[in-house]
Design brief:
Elements (H helix, E strand, L loop, with lengths): L19 E2 L5 H11 L3 E4 L9 E4 H9 L10 H4 L6 E3 L4 H11 L4 E5 L2 E6 L1 H13 L1
Parallel strand pairs: 1-2, 4-5
Antiparallel strand pairs: 2-3, 5-6
């Protein structure tokens, strides 16, 4: 089967259920939200129109809070988050998105339409939902 003949966009495999958090929130508040939402990533809100979105990942919390024996109630999201968050256009082909992830060792990116966040994308979604769907 010729996979190049099929076109699957990032919007077709992204996770559209995501939550925003304020950068001033504590890591404790973020963890509570992550547990409630059953997610390992939160989108950090922009402070104003000229600002960029951030991403808060469980893996960053593990490295920057847990491994350093810091109190989650005393550390703010802005101290741990990745900012600016990498984002991809909703129409990007999953093959190009996968190459971007590999080239820059990404584990998550935002999916946007202009400046509006539509969801998040991960290598798992690209492979399990995207590639698997191509070969079925």
């Amino acid at each position: 089967m010729n996979l190049a003949a099929r076109h699957v966009c990032v919007k077709d495999v992204m996770k559209s259920d995501f939550a925003y958090i304020d950068g001033k929130a504590t890591i404790y508040e973020a963890l509570r939200m992550m547990k409630q939402r059953k997610t390992s990533v939160l989108v950090v809100q922009r402070r104003n129109e000229d600002d960029e979105y951030g991403l808060l990942l469980v893996s960053d919390i593990a490295r920057k809070v847990l491994a350093r024996d810091r109190s989650p109630k005393r550390v703010n999201v802005y101290e741990v988050m990745v900012k600016p968050a990498v984002y991809v256009d909703k129409e990007m082909d999953i093959r190009y998105c996968s190459r971007l992830f590999a080239r820059f060792s990404l584990v998550r990116a935002l999916v946007v339409d202009g400046k509006e966040v539509l969801g998040t994308i991960s290598p798992n979604s690209l492979v399990l939902d995207g590639l698997f769907g191509l070969v079925e």
